[in-house]
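Case study.
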Amino acid sequence: MDSAPMRNDLPRAAAAGKREQTKVLNRQLILNAARQVFAELGYGAATVRDIIRATPLASGTFYNYFKSKEEVYQAIRDEVALAIRPRLHDERMKASTVEEFISCTFRTFFEYVADDRMNFRTIRHAADNTRVRMDTPEVIAGFEELREDIERAISKNLFPPVDPDLLMAAIVGVAFEVSERMLKTSPHDPKAAADFATALFLGGVRALPEMQHHEESGESNGELKSDAA
Amino acid sequence: MDSAPMRNDLPRAAAAGKREQTKVLNRQLILNAARQVFAELGYGAATVRDIIRATPLASGTFYNYFKSKEEVYQAIRDEVALAIRPRLHDERMKASTVEEFISCTFRTFFEYVADDRMNFRTIRHAADNTRVRMDTPEVIAGFEELREDIERAISKNLFPPVDPDLLMAAIVGVAFEVSERMLKTSPHDPKAAADFATALFLGGVRALPEMQHHEESGESNGELKSDAA
Amino acid sequence: MDSAPMRNDLPRAAAAGKREQTKVLNRQLILNAARQVFAELGYGAATVRDIIRATPLASGTFYNYFKSKEEVYQAIRDEVALAIRPRLHDERMKASTVEEFISCTFRTFFEYVADDRMNFRTIRHAADNTRVRMDTPEVIAGFEELREDIERAISKNLFPPVDPDLLMAAIVGVAFEVSERMLKTSPHDPKAAADFATALFLGGVRALPEMQHHEESGESNGELKSDAA
Amino acid sequence: MDSAPMRNDLPRAAAAGKREQTKVLNRQLILNAARQVFAELGYGAATVRDIIRATPLASGTFYNYFKSKEEVYQAIRDEVALAIRPRLHDERMKASTVEEFISCTFRTFFEYVADDRMNFRTIRHAADNTRVRMDTPEVIAGFEELREDIERAISKNLFPPVDPDLLMAAIVGVAFEVSERMLKTSPHDPKAAADFATALFLGGVRALPEMQHHEESGESNGELKSDAA
DNA sequence: AATGAATGAGTTTTCATTCAT
DNA sequence: TATGAATGAAAACTCATTCAT
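After joint prediction, the assembly is written out as follows.
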């Protein structure tokens, strides 16, 4: 009140005003809560109430930020895709051999997943352990980008003229499925995962690295909560 | 119950009591409706009401057959798993080389999927094109079985001593992801899919078969409904 | 902040303190917005939010001027009644014949309505074309005043000893209903309306003026908005 | 229960089954509650909750019968309009003089209103005594019908060639406004009201019947509630 | 068994009002 | 004094489940 009307247009610079800050904070509070809740209950079963409850905010506040569960979800997936897709694409464009193409794809992906587990964690139904993977439009766009990169690589004779669609599918399938295994080991070992997947794609099962001992982490549904908190 | 699913368009052969017949019929009506609804809305978002609505039956009737959405879901799962898991396991037990192990796994899987698309079709949210894959407990049990089979194969020196968990994950990832691509081509070509996946796992990308031209079928979300009906 | 919303089109005339001016302006902004909103949604369905939205002001600002929807409404009412009631009363007090009493009542009323359409415009629900007429306490007080004037006229033998309540009702009914017809013709013709109503009250249907051609104006619900803006 | 499965398709006849009966009853419970609530709070301010509360039914039950407040309201107004419009039209078609046309219109209308007060009772805001009249599409259709009947009467030389729109407006205005006065007297006297209005329209104020003594009923807002109950 | 309306707890959403900036 | 985000009470609506027929 004593700070007067405050002409905040100019001197603002990096200050951002407390209001601004709170808004950003609250938005993140909601997004994080939503990530947790989706992971715990699955997207379909999650309710806006569940998200609000996982937040210190009031119910009405949710609607100041998002119109619906769908909209929160959009926001989450956009964050993820925007972060990882350019990285993957750049790496692949630099590849001059099959080895590089394959290895950088897997390495970059697994490292991202290991860093940002929350966003990739496969959703599981607490009740029945049903596993749900949602590939949002942005993620699917990432698949398309991979396919295009494969086509480009084929035209540069980096790859033999294989079906780019099937190869993309195989890479995606392995990436997601192996990611999940990786997230179950402790500590997460993106390098081992990448080496495994890369070796498989370059030489088949007979070229795979010999068994690495890994411990099953004790992670269970119960722990998801604390993870995300 | 012993009179089986019974396509009831045909003359009632062995004449199970009409009562009996209706019971079986209604059960199947509900299960089919549930499959559709789960596919369209996802398991979490689907409601018992949705399932009933997709049925000519009254709401109360649902509860004569199943206690809840969960129970219908269990029933669906069991049908699928009971059908495919033993086949996969048997085939793999007969394998005496890596080649056989890998190829029979993919071939059997893709053939089943091509036959029984409804149950494997990846769920898509009509609204936002979100892709959802649900791995039910039974399906996950199938994954475990695969891992055990891999371990057995390793101990028989069929495989080198790789990480069975990661190999299982890779096989599963490729199987599901490639299945989906396969379901988009018309006619479905399980052999091509199996050949691709098998070659990849045996020799890596450089061993992959050369490009097969395939046509995108016109399949879209819109058709899911009629598919399943 | 002190540079204000300020309708700065015209030179600021008499230079009331800028502060002062803004206050009056904002008050009018709110009142006008409220008139619109009440007209569009009806009083009961209108919300303070609706009013604020129809304003360039912030929600909190509303409460600097009015405590509630009720209070704005009172203010609107008062404006209207303060404008028209004294005029009607004065005219009628000057009447020395039935003819004068009736004709001045209708003429004054229709002229006011034609001038200040916004406040008399019958409310219509855009959605369902429902017509809503609100007679506010002030308006009803105007009715009472009319009845008293009728009683006074009867006691002065201007009128035969009719039921003043029923006569008042008839005058009011015709005044409002014919007003509305008048507002639908373009240009508004308060004289024709007054002549019609006066003739009816003085001689019945057989004394009515012969048909006047009138054009339906293109006015529709859609235009209410722009009218009031 | 002892009546067994009861093949109710045939022997049903006039029986209608208890279920049927309950449905009709509940529908009426809701409609009556809605009439009360609209009368007490005004249409806009009334909520579905208010209607449900005025009913012995559960909240969900409301939605088995009507989708929204709007829909209940539609049902109410349809009931009214369907009841009164044909009667008015028939009477007017039989009229062979101005006198008959006017008198039957008013008489029929006032009698109906006196009989079915609930549906015509002008809505008042408990809080601020605001009067609200809603002319629904059906009611407006009744206005149009009157205008057409007037046009027909003019072409039959029953009426002089007056503006049918204005005459309709005047009749409607007087009918509604006088109705309301009538409802305030006790006992309701539709004949007096009709005589008054008819005399006014046939001969103007100088032809009006001499004052009838009438008592103001003690009706106040507070009593509306019990009235409608 | 089948039916389908009733139930009421739970979810979604809106809104008046407050209050820190 | 203006702003507009936060609040939480209340309204709107949905749904699994029961139960009379």
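Observations recorded in class. Chain B has two domains: 18-70, 75-228. Residues 1-15, 214-229 of chain B have pLDDT under 50 and may be disordered. We will return to this complex in the next lecture.
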